[in-house]
């Protein structure tokens, strides 16, 4: 209330006088703002730099797999007071955000488990997951620390892109098999890994950092291997459809020019 008293005295000094009811109403609003700021300060004080970076990395990386699950679960943790969300993440616990992210999570949960539909869903979501992962990572630090927020956004976007590419490539390879069970297994694994990554980053940030480094290497190796497999499948399909002949003719023409 010290700041509010100073403002009232200043207003009196310039000739503006507030009646008792108005002063009391504005004073209560100022108290609420001060309490909210204090709660935000306490929430940030509960997190050290390593925990904040780990959480930013987890949100970015997991967004490439399950964006709406990450948004909904993180928001619910804040809304139920299980976790004091740092920075700008508190917006995720607003009822509107929880309703929208919950509805999209419901749609994605089933769409991601239908062969063919999951790949189409990934293509559509590829334009959303990477910028959303960057935004979530930046929100960990809020607007008060622009330098760290920018660094977190770059890191979160890169990690989201890595997991998105690995997910899309893996699903495309799995969908070459007609049976749905491998697709269901991969989808359920992604569900658990996404939420588990956030939990691990919150409770054991150092363990998460080591695990993330190992997983990133494995993901890129797997993506490279599966990409070669998919190219071989595409070449085989083209051969079955009779599209290899123009390539052979071009090679023959090149040989004639050589001689």
TrEMBL record:
Keywords attached to this Swiss-Prot or TrEMBL record, sorted alphabetically, are:
Membrane, Transmembrane, Transmembrane helix
List residues of the DUF4126 domain. Answer: 54-223
Q: Which InterPro entries match?
A: DUF4126
Record bears the keyword Chaperone:
no
| Membrane-spanning intervals of the chain | 52-79, 91-111, 208-230
- What is the protein name for this chain? DUF4126 domain-containing protein
Q: Which organism is it from?
A: Comamonas piscis
């Amino acid at each position: 209330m010290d700041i509010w008293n100073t403002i009232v005295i200043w207003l009196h000094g310039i000739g503006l006088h507030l009646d008792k009811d108005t002063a009391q109403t504005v004073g209560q609003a100022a108290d609420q703002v001060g309490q909210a700021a204090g709660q935000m300060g306490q929430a940030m004080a509960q997190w050290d730099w390593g925990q904040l970076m780990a959480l930013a990395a987890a949100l970015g990386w997991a967004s490439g797999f399950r964006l709406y699950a990450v948004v909904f679960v993180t928001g619910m943790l804040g809304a139920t007071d299980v976790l004091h969300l740092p920075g700008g993440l508190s917006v995720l616990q607003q009822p509107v955000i929880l309703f929208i992210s919950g509805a999209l999570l419901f749609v994605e949960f089933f769409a991601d488990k239908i062969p063919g539909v999951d790949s189409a869903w990934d293509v559509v979501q590829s334009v959303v997951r990477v910028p959303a992962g960057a935004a979530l990572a930046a929100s960990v630090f809020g607007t008060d620390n622009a330098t760290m927020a920018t660094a977190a956004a770059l890191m979160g976007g890169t990690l989201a892109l890595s997991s998105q590419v690995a997910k899309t490539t893996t699903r495309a390879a799995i969908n070459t098999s007609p049976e749905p069970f491998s697709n269901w297994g991969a989808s359920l694994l992604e569900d658990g890994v996404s939420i588990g990554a956030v939990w691990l980053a919150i409770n054991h940030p150092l363990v998460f950092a080591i695990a993330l480094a190992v997983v990133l290497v494995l993901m890129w190796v797997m993506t490279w291997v599966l990409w070669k497999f998919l190219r071989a499948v595409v070449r085989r399909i083209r051969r079955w459809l009779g599209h290899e002949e123009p390539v052979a003719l071009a090679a023959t023409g090149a040989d004639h020019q050589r001689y």
